[in-house]
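Listing S7. Sequence submitted for prediction.
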Amino acid sequence: MNTDNNITNNTTIKTNEDGARHAEASEPERTVIIKSGGSGRVLAWSAAGVALASYILLLMTSGIIAMIVAAFGLVLGFIAANKTKGALHRLAVTAIIASAVLVAVLAAFVLVIRLGLN
């Protein structure tokens, strides 16, 4: 005959079949949460690097390639801004602004100059 009486959260009193009572300490349940803190940091720095790379590509290649890379930096910046706080958040916002300016200027250039002249 086993009867269980809970005294506290961690201690259980059990009665054995021969009538002896004894207390057993049980381990509380623990939930382990693993946070990947590096992903936001990597995304923020990647967004800034891609924004800078798009300006360098503008000097070396055509504007279309630089605009595509800047659009990728814009997406990375938005994702990084949602995952980070503090200085890295401001870095991601700076990458968003830099990429958005390049995309807007190059899109206006392509629309006005290339399509207007044809």
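Caption to Listing S7: primary sequence and predicted structure tokens for the chain studied. The mean pLDDT is 81. The longest strand covers residues 11-15.
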